[in-house]
Design a protein that fits this description.
six-stranded mixed beta sheet; mainly beta; about 400 residues
């Protein structure tokens, strides 16, 4: 028994060493505290250490009773700066347009990363409550619109070489398969719902097939499919060929149509205003700023208000002018309701806001476009007449009293 005592003592000491080391304050690992995230104000997507490119929807929550407005901004992340004050004084740039309505785990705005250089950035949610701004910061986020060549090579789709016409192919017995499927006639997008307003969740390349799980319960004839990688979504019936037994397809309910944010003004293929005279070398240049509908979406046979801000980015003052607003059914332009908003002169470098009212009473429960046209009567001779053609917003008209 005496011979075993030293060995027993050594075992006890080995067990006590980790316990003693665990008492060192520098080695204690604290669990993650979920309360660090404010459930009423946060950015939920993209997460930290994420790579983005092109346009990306920024999601999160802004649900405060005293909110006046909010927007998301970004700036480069200066990881090589030794002095933290250099980062703290860095300039912020707007990533999304200001919004006023509360959002709960939904889209805060869309960030077009094509205007930013590739590299690391941080995002900041800027909330104005009337008592001063409140911020929620998120970093790092990597913008990578121009990936290295070896990454681009790995992203390219493999192209199959055509068969040798001099070699007769061996006959292949294909098993009988009557399961429903689609074959892509062209390179096709797969979306989260049965409308082009839904986000793209996958792709079905030309000639490739996918299993059909059902059709849209809305009667749009879009197929609900499953791709080879397990991704599920809806695909338009006009760009695929359906095969197999389609007699007992399940009716799948798409998710609610996502709200369409007021986009940055872009030229759209709609009826153009009267031809303007040749643009001068210097002078005013009018462009759209913030555009906001109240309420959004609109209700059939109920008047809504549209607020429009116009900026003068030129080097000369602009006299009075008008903005025309047209609300019509998407695609066909049917059921057009219009109004014109008058503006006073706008000095160079300044902006003016005004509003108009429209009552739409046709094509309820369908998608409408709201198109806007600057200086509709060519009252202002601008340095650039090409950016006046229109800005657009989309919404689904509620039925209301129609």
């Amino acid at each position: 028994m005496r011979a075993r005592f030293p060995g027993f003592l050594i075992m006890v000491m080995l067990l006590l060493v980790p316990l003693a080391l665990g008492q060192d304050g520098n080695s204690v690992i604290e669990p993650y505290d979920e309360m660090m995230v404010n459930p009423d104000v946060n950015i939920s997507f993209p997460p930290p250490v994420y790579v983005v490119r092109d346009s990306i929807d920024i999601r999160g929550t802004v649900n405060l009773p005293s909110i006046l407005s909010y927007f998301v901004e970004f700036r480069p992340l200066l990881v090589d700066m030794m002095d933290s004050e250099d980062q703290a004084e860095g300039q912020w740039f707007p990533a999304t347009v200001p919004q006023r309505s509360s959002v709960v785990d939904d889209i805060l705005g869309t960030w077009n990363t094509l205007t930013a250089r590739d590299g690391l950035y941080e995002l900041r949610l800027n909330i104005n409550t009337g008592d001063g701004p409140e911020y929620v910061r998120l970093s790092p986020i990597r913008v990578e619109n121009n990936p290295p060549s070896f990454v681009e090579d790995s992203m390219q789709t493999e192209v199959e070489e055509p068969p040798d016409p001099t070699v007769e192919p061996e006959p292949v017995e294909e098993p009988l398969d009557d399961s429903p499927r689609v074959v892509a006639q062209v390179n096709s997008n797969v979306r989260a719902g049965d409308n082009t307003f839904y986000q793209v969740v996958g792709f079905l390349l030309e000639g490739k097939s996918a299993k059909i799980l059902g059709t849209s319960s809305r009667g749009t004839s879009w197929y609900f499919i499953e791709l080879a990688n397990g991704v599920r979504g809806f695909i338009h019936p006009n760009i695929v060929r359906a095969e197999g037994d389609l007699s007992n397809l399940e009716r799948i309910a798409p998710p609610p149509l996502p709200p369409t944010p007021i986009p940055i003004p872009t030229a759209i293929p709609v009826e153009a205003p009267p031809a303007a005279p040749a643009a001068p070398a210097s002078g005013p240049n009018l462009v759209f700023g913030e555009i906001r509908m109240e309420p959004h979406p609109a209700t059939c046979n109920e008047t809504y208000t549209i607020h429009v801000t116009v900026q003068n980015n030129g080097n000369g003052d602009a006299g009075g002018f008008s903005v025309e607003v047209r609300d019509s059914r998407m695609g066909t332009g049917a059921g057009q309701a219009t109004t014109q908003i008058g503006y006073p002169p706008v000095p160079a470098g300044q902006s003016r806001s005004a509003f108009g009212r429209i009552t739409q009473n046709q094509h309820y429960e369908e998608v409408h476009h709201v198109n806007l046209f600057l200086d509709i009567h060519n009252q202002v001779s601008e340095t650039n007449e090409g950016d006046n053609h229109g800005a657009t917003a989309a919404y689904i008209l509620r039925r209301g009293r129609c």
